[in-house]
User: Fold these one by one.
Assistant:
Number 1:
Amino acid sequence: MGTAERKIMNVLAGRTVSPPPIWLMRQAGRYLPEYRQVRATANGFLNLCYTPDLATEVTLQPIRRFGLDAAILFSDILVIPDAMDRNVRFKEGEGPLLDPIDADAIAALKAPDVKGHLAPVLETVSRLRRELPQETTLLGFCGAPWTIATYMIAGHGTSDQAPARLFAARHRKPFERLLNIVAEASAEYLVAQLDAGADAVQIFDSWAGVLGDRDFADYAAGPVKRIIDMVRAERPGARIIAFAKGAGYNLKTYRQATGADAIGLDWTVPLDFAAELQKDGAVQGNLDPLKMVSGGDNLDEAIDRILDVLGNGPLIFNLGHGITPEADPANVERLVSRVRSHRQGR
Ligand code: CP3
């Protein structure tokens, strides 16, 4: 058995796999008691990301429990600003905090030492590839430049990313320099993850949905295309998933605009529009993550609708965003077994 058995790689090549393979964004995390146990001993979230023993263990936890078709490297998108010395920290119950960056600090910003600073994360990737079952796809990831920039500019999460949108409008040149430096570091990071053993990578643009159409093209799709072009210039054939949360109708041209092999869909994307996007290639998604909290017949119906509309084409089943801490692991089990019992043309 070799890589040919990795179902997600077949879907990323544009083939229909039935039943569709499944993994879940944020599948390692606080909804799992075994994660909370490791997290409690880790001396902080970033330390967990930078300790290969612990990061490997928590990545494997959801694979052991649910037998998902992909493992996603346990890390965070904010390790790139951390490598840029932006003083990234995670305060309990507060989410991420960084030193807010301004135009002067952007002018002084240097390309980070990605391979040096993130060596422990790359070590985790190689350990994972050795320890995972042959048939399990290993996914690496990074944040998209726009989403990374929103945290770097505000210094914390916000509900509408007003600080970054205002900064882009007022200081376009420094803002574009920031996007470019993040894009170059991210491309180098993704190539290093692929070289360390990742089969494919996902680019998370979690805040794409707050941008108007022109800004979406310039700040979301454009920089993601530049990352993909840089990665493929070094590793031709690299398989890449692009997830632009909340992008709505902007998704219509997102695959062509970026060159991604699969387009991630959040749970607000109508399934008839998703089916249209699937005519051009693989899609990934898009169950409402809160169904993992509520469960029941309503969960089964939502799963079946996705399978009925998208299950006869290239589909990677996933949630429409990350699983939440309130999710019930029993609902994840129910989801996986229901997707696995699906037959094409049902
Ligand atoms: O998917 C996985 O299981 C891999 C691990 C992963 C994490 N973060 C672990 C994490 C991945 C792929 C991410 C990506 C990430 N991080 C994104 C993009 C995806 C998304 O959810 O939109 C973003 C925007 C971040 C930034 C980030 N990290 C925030 C806003 C927070 C705080 C909110 C929260 O959920 O606590 C984090 C912390 C974080 N990243 C946790 C985990 C498991 C929780 C921290 C903890 O255990 O204390």
Number 2:
Amino acid sequence: MFDDRLSKGRRRGRAALTALVIAGVGAALIAGSAFFPTLVEAKKKELRTEVPPGELDDYYGFFSGGHSGEVRVLGLPSMRLFKRIPVFNLDAGSGWGVTNESKAMMGGLVTGDTHHAHASYKDGTYDGKYLWINDKANNRLARIRLDYMETDTIISIPHAQGVHGIFPQRYPQTDWVILNSEFRTPLHNDGKGDIRDAASYNGVHTVVDAHDMKIVCQVMVPCNLDLAATDYQGKYSFATSYNSEGGATISEMLAKDRDWLVVFDWDAIKDGLKKKDYKVVDGIKMLDGKPGSRYAIYVPVPKNPHGVNVSPDGKYAVCSGKVSPTATVVAIDKLADAFAGKIEPKDTIVAEPEIGLGPLHTTFDGRGNAYTSLFIDSQIVKWNIQKAIDLYKNPKKDDTAVVDRLDISYQVGHTMASMAETKEADGHFLVSLNKISKDRFLNVGPLKPENDQLVDISGDKMRLLMDEPSYIEPHDCIIVRRDIVEPHVKDRADMDEHPLAVHKNAIERDGNKVTVHLTANAPVYGMQEVEVNEGDEVTFIVTNHDEIPDLAHGFCISDYGINFVVGPFQTRSVTFVANKPGLHWIYCTNFCHALHLEMRLRLMVKAKA
Ligand code: CUA
Ligand code: CA
């Protein structure tokens, strides 16, 4: 009976694999052309908002999880949550933070604060390979491989606090990822010297090699650096700075009417590295990007700017001052002249339309329109970039670049349109990531969910489609076409990618160190019992040999605080000291078989004499 079920499962697995291959070929055929048949079909009337049972979404949404420390994968337009990818957080469901593999990446920390998820690029659009996410809390950068949708590397960023804005290189492909430090600190932050002297603090713009995840260099600046963007030519990166004052208190940070959009010149940085125009600080090449240096220019933009986003045509960087009702449009083709000193940095500004109160982030529809989140007004405002530029040149009374406004619920932070951070921005959907939901959902106490609202931006008027509650607290997201990601996503791991993959069950003893090599095949582990002595250092290495898609096994040791899952063909390990004598059943936590409950083995820890 069970064998029969297994073989049916295997057949299903093969059928699914075949379907995936066909879907992949289909996606490859239509990539770059018309997009999904389902969506095109639906567009004849209006954008579909429902995904009926059994059908698939048109987009992946990769959302940061804020201080939950994770990344979330949703489908759009359904807004269904598919997966929570643990990154900087302990995850009880998957055992992230419990296994040796994840612990080695996490470096003893089990909290984080993720803000900005950005995927890898080729030629200005996503290639579906990787996703990067920052940890503002502990100043780290993580990379997630999208074929497994699991974290594969975490690195620490030195000389930086409040690692906030990140962005991958968009052209010709992602070789660099840049990161900003929002908090200024002493360069040698060792508590020696005058820590109170805020004038001596600095920020850093960090360049990370996207391939080996090593730090290429840092560019030191006197100001803080908040959000980040890269251009579409592989020439520049951008950082807003709301603390050009170099203040340490909120009133000091609000002293000036204008702060900065700092632009970094990548050719100059590469040349500086070649000519060794840096000092080595704690092993890191540190270039000096102070005003007047060749590495950075400082464009004066309205008070305390936050977001910076580059239009999909690659022409403009748009930022907004949180306490100015405007957006600032910087022409990227003027930057070379500003770096050469032919024009002033301020002369790169080509528009500054008045759009509303508390402007934060801007996204795009690929048809020349920008959509800016207004935190104070609780609105998404749609405005036309070219019209804003025309009106900046020839102001007309009573004329405006604003095209439409949509009230949202409530207090929007980031906003993102489908494919908007690529040259393939398609202007279908927009997500308004609202910080406050108040009365929009059943009351669950003082800590309420956030409200991520889905908006149809395919027409002249924006149309609110859906409220989606989300657990605290997504900051930002990207919306990626399904055909870019799905063909690369695997149902099973490459078993031998893990150097310790178990092919043969065995117990090895070396003094008081015991290593157990264990396979898992529904509904049995490769051994029925393991005997160790109290005080032994025990390592279990578990490989799941089930090839059926979605057939994961758990590994939980009763009363030992050890609990994790292993996906098809994956290997996970755990090391602990057997400090509790007695019988401890090890059991499978992940329902895998009709005999799932019987999938267990005895760990017998013999008490010291
Ligand atoms: Cu294996 Cu349940
Ligand atoms: Ca300021």
